[in-house]
Each structure stands twice: as structure tokens, then as C-alpha cells.
Design a protein that fits this description.
The chain is an alpha+beta fold and about 300 residues long. The protein has three domains: about 1-45; about 50-155, Tumour Suppressor Smad4; about 160-285, no CATH class. The protein contains two helices and 18 strands. The longest helix is centred in the first third of the chain and has 42 residues, at about 1-45.
């Protein structure tokens, strides 16, 4: 009987070890798949790596083209003068230069045409060859901001891939969410030297390495309910991006618990392109701990 009991215990132990290894392998595989998706989105033809220009549009006429005189300057693949953007109070127009081939939402235009730039409506996209120009609603002075993306941008063509810390389950935490009865509006610094409005929805409390911490929540996915957090820690400016990193939690369960996995912490777009505007974390989200998990910082980046 003792021999049988011993054999059963040995078999059970082997099964538990095998099960734990299989679970760990699945976790590692899931993280690697998530990281591959992050990189693929960055590499998309009109993803963040393709952004070459971002700036406020002044009232009046602004030249678009590859000319040095152009306010919205395009790459040399574009004509020197593509046309004029014209902002009259809150009305925006584009007039193509004679002989230029310009599409507005896929339709070629030859004369002064109105553009939509306010959020809540399908915004207008100008296309010059492969280059796309979009007018966006801005909280800054002019109210209109111009974004240009070019699949041939050097930042996209020369991108060598993201760098990551080794995956470790010690950086996966279970957190409890406390939502504010009323959201709180604050302002934070951004990567362009200005300030961004930020709405705080609540906070998530969690433990890592036996210590308790809290992070403020500044966004939520409308589809799945996952929560968005901007944070920094003691690794910032050393092995991770100096201003901070982004992270999404899982959707809260019925009891308000989420998974907060720092292996999925990633850099904001301003870590890759100078023309992105990224909000910095609120001061409460500066963690007094070194979290070397998730995405590493390449010091040659912006």
C-alpha cells in the first residue's frame, strides 16, 4: 500500500509540475502575441511611425507642399506647392494648386472645397500620393490642428522594432477599482511643452513585491471596459521612457477587480516621433518602485 501511495503522490506531483509549466508557457505566449500586435500597429502604413507633422493652423492661408516656404511641409516626394489651407473663423477650406493631384476623402478635387475638422463627424482626409493630411479639433489656441502621415517617413522605414524586458509573472498584479462618484478634471504637462486636460475616473489599488500602491485612472475603453493608466516609476529616465508609460488593465469583474500586468506596459507614441503630443502622468502616478517590465527605452529615441 505504501508503494502505491508513493507512486500516486509522485504521479500527482509530476502532473502539478507539468500543469504549472503549461500554464506558464501559455502566459508567456499570450504576452508575446500581445507585444507582436503592439509592434504591428506601430508599423502600419499610417500608424504613429508615419507621422511627420503636427501643428496648429493659424487663421488665413497656409501653404501645403515640399517647398521651404510651406507652413505644412511635406516630404520631397510631394510637389513644392500642393495647395492652400484656409481657416476663416471656424470654417476650413482647401484649394489645390493647378496641376496638383489631390484627393479629399478619396475624390479628386480641383477647386476650393470645405473640410470637416470637428470631432463627432467624419473628418476630412486630404491625400497627396501616399501622404495623408487630416485636420483635427484641438484644445489649443487656434482650435484646428493639422496632422500629416507618410508611409515613407524615415521613422517608419528605419524602425528596428520594440525592445522589451524579460517576461516575469511577479509584475502581474490583481487590483481593486474605486470609481469616483463624479469624475475629476485636471491638467497635466505634455510632450510638446504645453498642457493637456485629463479626466480622472477613479483609482486602482494593488500590490507588487509585497507593497501596496495606487494609480489614478484616466480613461476607459467604450467596448470592453478596460481601464487606461499613465504612470512612471524609478526606472524612468534610466531603462524606461523618461516621461512615463501607458498601460491598460483588464475589464473590472463584478466585484471591481482587474488584472494589472506591467509586462504589458508600453511607451507612448512620443517615444518614437517628435511630432506626437503625449500627456504626462499625473503626479500621483509616480510610483516609488523600479518596474523593469514591459517596454524598454531606446535612448536614441526622442
Amino acid at each position: 500500500m505504501k508503494i502505491i501511495k508513493t507512486a500516486v503522490l509522485v504521479a500527482l506531483g509530476a502532473w502539478l509540475i507539468h500543469s504549472a509549466r503549461a500554464e506558464s508557457d501559455t502566459y508567456q505566449s499570450n504576452i508575446l502575441q500581445w507585444r507582436a500586435k503592439v509592434e504591428a500597429e506601430l508599423r502600419e502604413p499610417y500608424g504613429w511611425l508615419s507621422q511627420t507633422y503636427l501643428g496648429d493652423l493659424p487663421q488665413g492661408n497656409s501653404l501645403v507642399g515640399s517647398s521651404r516656404d510651406a507652413l505644412i511641409r511635406l516630404s520631397n516626394s510631394a510637389p513644392a506647392k500642393v495647395g492652400l489651407l484656409e481657416l476663416v473663423d471656424e470654417d476650413l477650406f482647401f484649394t489645390p494648386q493647378k496641376g496638383s493631384s489631390v484627393l479629399l476623402n478619396g475624390v479628386e478635387i480641383h477647386e476650393r472645397t470645405g473640410m470637416i475638422w470637428k470631432e463627432g463627424r467624419q473628418q476630412s482626409i486630404l491625400q497627396i500620393g501616399a501622404i495623408r493630411l487630416m485636420a483635427l479639433e484641438s484644445s489649443f489656441e487656434s482650435g484646428v490642428r493639422i496632422r500629416v502621415r507618410d508611409p515613407e517617413a524615415p521613422t517608419r522605414k528605419k524602425f528596428k522594432g520594440n525592445e522589451w524586458f524579460p517576461i516575469s509573472e511577479k509584475w502581474k498584479a490583481r487590483g481593486i477599482v474605486t470609481r469616483y462618484r463624479q469624475s475629476k478634471d485636471i491638467e497635466v504637462k505634455n510632450s510638446q511643452g504645453g498642457r493637456n486636460p485629463m479626466t480622472l475616473l477613479g483609482e486602482v489599488a494593488f500590490q507588487v513585491q509585497g507593497q501596496s500602491y495606487k494609480l489614478l485612472i484616466s480613461g476607459a475603453d467604450e467596448k470592453d471596459g478596460s481601464l487606461f493608466i499613465i504612470f512612471k516609476d524609478r526606472s524612468s529616465d534610466k531603462t524606461t521612457y523618461p516621461p512615463g508609460r501607458f498601460i491598460w488593465t483588464t475589464s473590472p469583474d463584478r466585484d471591481g477587480f482587474v488584472e494589472l500586468d506591467f509586462n504589458k506596459a508600453f511607451q507612448p507614441p512620443c517615444a518614437f516621433v517628435h511630432t506626437a503630443t503625449c500627456p504626462f502622468p499625473p503626479k500621483e502616478n509616480n510610483l516609488p518602485i523600479t518596474i523593469e517590465a514591459g517596454e524598454r527605452w531606446k535612448k536614441e529615441s526622442p
